[in-house]
Design brief:
It is built from 11 helices and 13 strands. The protein is an alpha/beta fold.
Length: 342
């Protein structure tokens, strides 16, 4: 980084799963002069060199340009997964809020924008081979999460043409987990009343083995290191981020001591759709449809151009996350608060 002592980095969505890891690493980096974390609710947590600002990126009253003035980079992480029954609300936060962030970056003259895209932006692809960053990013149109991630990819295509002087980096990580995210992710995907102790091996003698349910995982801290490397480099464009090995029923069965039992995709989807329709499960059947179609990602570009390598294997990531589920782990921010149910 140039002018290291004076670097000012602004992070939106700073109190969530990825934001807490990014903020911590930025605050520890001697190359970073100051950090500004934007979040709807201010945390108790106060890492070094970090200030907080209560900002809702969807609000017309939020002066994002003022927040971004003088920044050397903006890392845009803000995202809402719920309510899955009201896609207009998540669209307003994720897409319209994202566009407001991009416009403010340009208006404030910020030289670098690092955006949190996702494997969810990718069009359906292979499960037995890995695709690079040139794979189409049209998402799975029936799933709000994928639709919104893909729309912002198209928005950034236009943004880069209109603002060639701004360096844009798009991170496309796999599913991100850490111990402290366990309670938040249980609430987002399983519901606030799902008992975390259900992750104990003795309670899961059988594990559904659904065709196509083979995905990649990554430790959130490893993803955060990639964000840091991107901010401190001249890299542009998209970067896939994932750890090995791919996660499937066989791997989970070994971790949990459970026997995988083949379950037809239609049966699994029907069960999820019924629970979602009754508002018993926040994760929608549309997201399930997307997950079973997501491609596996080739991460060679991040390895060679960013010098990035994950420190955790996917197996270690899942083990840590399962322990967090059992313990009701969390962190000192409102989205990440810990809670043990059951």
């Amino acid at each position: 980084m140039s002018n290291a002592a004076g670097n000012r980095i602004v992070v939106t969505g700073a109190t969530g799963n990825v934001g807490t890891s990014v903020i911590r690493l930025l605050s520890e980096d001697p190359q970073v002069g100051s950090v500004l974390g934007l979040a709807r609710r201010l945390p108790e947590w106060q890492p070094p060199k970090t200030d907080w600002s209560a900002v809702d990126i969807t609000s017309e009253q939020a002066d994002l340009v003022r927040e971004f003035l003088g920044a050397d980079a903006v890392i845009h992480l803000a995202w809402a997964f719920q309510p899955t029954h009201d896609p207009a609300t998540t669209w307003r936060t994720n897409v319209l809020g994202g566009i407001r962030v991009f416009d403010a970056v340009a208006a404030a003259g910020v030289p670098t924008l690092v955006h949190a895209s996702s494997v969810g932006a990718y069009s359906p692809g292979p499960k037995d081979d890995a695709v690079d960053e040139s794979w189409p990013t049209h998402g799975w149109p029936d799933a709000a999460y994928c639709r919104e991630k893909a729309y912002l990819e198209r928005t950034l295509d236009t943004f880069e043409r209109e603002h060639p002087g701004i360096r844009v980096v798009r991170m496309r990580p796999a599913f991100l987990f850490k111990r402290e995210s366990a309670s938040e992710q249980r609430r987002i995907f399983g519901g606030k009343f799902l008992p975390g102790p259900l992750a104990r091996p003795e309670l899961l003698p059988f594990l559904p083995d659904v065709p196509g349910l083979r995905v990649q995982a990554l430790h959130t801290d490893d993803a955060a290191r990639a964000y840091l490397l991107a901010v401190g480099s001249d890299a542009r464009g998209a970067f896939n981020l994932a750890a090995e090995p791919p996660v499937d029923a066989a791997l989970l069965g070994k971790l949990l001591g459970s026997r995988p039992v083949r379950l037809p995709r239609t049966a699994a989807r029907s069960a999820i759709a019924a629970a979602w329709g009754l508002h018993l499960l926040p994760a929608s059947p549309h997201l399930f449809d997307a997950v079973v179609r997501l491609p596996l990602m080739d991460c060679n570009r991040a390895h060679t151009e960013l010098g990035w390598q994950p420190e955790y294997t996917a197996t270690e990531v899942i083990e840590e996350f399962l322990q967090g589920l059992q313990q009701g782990a969390g962190a000192r921010t409102e989205p990440m608060r810990g809670r043990k149910v059951g």
